[in-house]
Amino acid sequence: MSSRLLALIPLAVAINVAIGRIVAELSLPVYLDAVGTILVSALAGLGAGVVTGLIGQVLTSFVSGYVWLAFAPIQILIALLAFVAARRGGFKNLGSSIAWGGLLGLLGGALSAVISYLAFKGVTAGGVTFVTTVLVGIGMELPWAITASSIVTDVLDKALAFALVGVALRSLPVRMISRYPLALRAVGR
Questions:
Q1: Taking the model in full, what pTM does it have?
Q2: Cα separation of 85 and 67, whole Å?
């Protein structure tokens, strides 16, 4: 492991935990707890992204409650898809970033719905639980309400997170981004 990577992972974990906590405190219907995971996956590859995501998820469970540990597989999926997107130039423009984030949102939302229903009967993050409650209130059955709220909020969340990371990557000076060959590919250089 390079010293650059050893410095990058803790910074990205801090980004995951801090932004995720702020969003949770505001009870927004998104998470934004994977920005660091996506960034590291696009800069340094799958292994570094998985390590970042899992460490962030464990720390989040210490700070915000054990419920978040159940969602660790989502961080692995995030790292995997961010890595694939980076290899395919998925961060080269805003539209591409949003499309890849939307795809991840569909996949992650489906997996999240299963975890949320089986482990917590849909009671997880404030904003998402609110959306589920509204859907149940208008007559949707709980499993479908959890699935709908998980997918809709995940698509929004991951599209926003990918867009943010795309802007960050495209804003890096050539001298800095050239240290990360995967990131050069991610932005189409």
A1: 0.93
A2: 29
